[in-house]
Specification:
single chain; about 140 residues; mainly beta; UDP N-Acetylglucosamine Acyltransferase, domain 1; eight-stranded parallel sheet; about 35% strand
């Protein structure tokens, strides 16, 4: 069952008996998302193959796009974000609020949200664009 208010854009393949609660968003422009049979995707989940942060800060001219594969019988909890390059094995649980990118999750796994990690100065290398400070 896919509720009204679920946005699906691009090359997205859904297996039989996939349930997606609204609001949710699956974006696969210029890439692909494959979701296996009998998956349950909770509300406020975002699944997107695109990552534009490097372009935004002047480190790339292109938007990075990587496919996503989600196996059968996977539960994805409220507010989870699945980004490009993820492969989630069958019969796994992705907990509420988890943010994943370029991760491979073996079958029958659980992924929980850690505490936020702040990496100060991570993007301190000079970028091609002039720096503008908002605060």
């Amino acid at each position: 069952m896919i509720e009204d208010g679920v946005r699906i854009i691009g090359n997205v393949t859904l297996g039989p008996n996939v349930s997606i609660s609204a609001p949710a968003e699956i974006m696969a422009k210029d890439s692909s998302v494959l979701i296996g049979a009998a998956c349950d995707i909770a509300a406020f989940v975002t699944i997107t193959t695109a990552d534009s942060h490097a372009r935004c800060i002047g480190r790339s001219e292109e938007i990075e796009r990587k496919p996503i594969v989600i196996g059968e019988n996977v539960f994805i909890g409220t507010g989870a974000v699945i980004l490009g390059g993820c492969k989630i094995g069958h019969h796994s649980v992705i907990g509420a609020g988890v943010v994943m990118k370029d991760m491979v999750v073996p079958p029958h796994s659980r992924v929980r949200a850690p505490r936020p990690i702040i990496e100060g100065g991570y993007y301190a290398i000079q970028t091609a664009r002039p720096e503008r400070r908002l605060f």
